[in-house]
Fold:
Amino acid sequence: MNMPKVIYKDLKIISYKKAWDYQKEIQQTIIKNKRESSQEPVNRLLFCEHKPVYTIGKSGKMDHLVFNEKQLLEAGIEFYKTNRGGDITYHGPGQITGYPIFDLDQFYHDVHRYVRDLEQVVINVLTHFGLKGERLEGFTGVWLLGTSFLPIHRKICAIGVHMSRWVTLHGLALNVNTDLNHFQGIIPCGIKEDNKMVTSLNAELESDILIDDVKKLMKKEFQTVFGIEYL
Structure:
């Protein structure tokens, strides 16, 4: 069986709207090629860092946006309603936002498996830093679970996806050296429990991690988990 082909691109720092428009353009091209060509369309994997922005999924609750319009303006944070799954989250500098635009006809027809595989990519990345990323029942994403000494579950990666004709959109967001103060303007992912919070690689390791190093690891782990071949 041939491995699905993927073109990787690092968009660097880019506005959310520009990246979203680019994703949709690629998705529609892949769908069009599926209809009109006998050859399998080439998948894409986009990495970027966003300018500060809050985004909310189609099932999200607006009261989970804590900041009002004036506070958003003062903080320099944009806000967008999106068509992905999940609630509200923050994207910004120091966070790797990964957008796989994959034709799942080339992989498998299982949305839940796809989300679990995205989680596995991040779990694998975290092992390189001596951290044990885990899934928390009832909560999508990757967590560092609390212990009896530190009974707080810390979410380090958020995931929200959408797909059309089995072609994926949106993806994951891993906090590397993200400014965690920006999460105070929202109820992240709608999670209100006192024993849950958002964290980052820097916060956990108490060390400055280079985001480009993490991107290299994440790119490699996408290849491992999804069995893809980069062009």
